[in-house]
Amino acid sequence: MPLYEHVLIARQDLSNAQAEGLIEHFSTVLADNGGKVVDHEYWGVKTMAYKINKNRKGHYAYLRSDAPSAAVQEMERLARLHDDVMRVMSVKVDAHEDGPSVQMQKRDERDRGDRGDRGDRGDRGDRGDRGDRGDRRDRR
Fold it and tell me: What is the pLDDT of residue 134?
């Protein structure tokens, strides 16, 4: 069966228990339609980039599933009809990664290879050079 990752965003005025209840509800929907939830995570309340239905924050939930496409379509249909769910996104993946998702990892454990060592701040090459602009005293 195909592998999927799902992210649900629920309304901010729900309690944590109600938000985790949504995870269980949609897990049973997948199970009833021939799939299974491999792993799930509750990410907590996070601030969104823009308002959705007059909400600035939302409860985020993450599911990893092994389910046929019909089960995923039914789960998405029911999530869109549910009053407490603001958004749902499902992505088909080739394989599930082991361990916690990137959102659940500590910031220190994440790979910072793209930033690298910034080195000596004084050595900026051409950027630190004022070029033909001269000193500030000369520009009056």
Answer: 63
Q: Are 101 and 10 in contact (CB under 8 A)?
A: no
Q: Rounded distance, CA 109 to CA 113, Å?
A: 12
Burial zone of 94 (CB within 10 Å; 0-12 exposed, 13-18 middle, 19+ buried): exposed
Q: Which CATH number fits domain 3-96: 3.30.70.60, 3.30.70.1230, 1.10.8.60, 3.40.190.10?
A: 3.30.70.60
Q: How far, in Å, CA of 108 to CA of 132, rounded?
A: 43
Structure-block tokens of residue 26: 């949609």
- What would the pLDDT profile of 1-47 be if each residue is shown by its tens digit? 889 999 999 999 999 899 889 999 999 999 999 998 988 888 889 99
Phi first, then psi: give them for residue 61, nearest 5 degrees.
-135, 145
Closest CA to 48 of 80, 87, 77: 87
Candidates 57, 66, 23; CA nearest to 41 is: 23
Domain boundaries, the chain: 3-96
